[in-house]
Amino acid sequence: MSAGWIILIIVILLALIVVGIYNSLVKQNEMVANAMSQIAAQLQSRWDALNNLIDATKDYAKYESETLDKVTKNRTGVNKDSNPADVAREESEFKNALTKVYAVAENYPELKASEVYRSTMDSINKYEDNVRHSRMIYNDTVTKFNRYIKSFPQNIFAGMFGYSEKTYFENEAETNQVPRWNK
User: Fold this and answer.
1) In CATH, which of 3.30.2350.10, 1.50.10.10, 1.20.1440.20, 1.10.8.60 is domain 14-176?
2) What is the pTM (predicted TM-score) of this model?
3) pLDDT digits 0-9 by tens, 119-131
4) H-helix or E-strand containing 110?
5) Which of 42, 80, 90, 168 meets the CB 3.0–4.6 Å disulfide criterion with 33?
């Protein structure tokens, strides 16, 4: 075999390695985006449940309905391109909205006794658990991505192709607790 063929084989092998690493980077990055999309879907479901709760609450609290309408207008809208800071802002908005609904419910004992109110609160609690689970999946996915781009030889190509470490969700005291309504 001539030196030309050996060089050609080495170049082809290197090209295949680079293509394989690039494809793996794309795949890992898409997995992180997908994990964030799952969080966005859970947040949307949670807001939908809160909107249902607000609709049920409006029947009891006609004069407070304007306040309740404003509650859902403050949403930030998380999507697959969002980051943990965007989700944290969304979490804060949701907690504020839920607190306002709780305040209205405290003024209307018959509302708290309502089956619609109780079942909707159960749904919100379920979505809170789903959001927490989705955040754990996101962090696991980010761990795999970050580990991959830090490993040799991927670390060389990750920088060349514009991939950098992803940010994790940090544990915050208020995100560790699901809002609960004392029955």
Assistant:
1) 1.20.1440.20
2) 0.67
3) 778 888 888 888 8
4) helix 109-113
5) 80
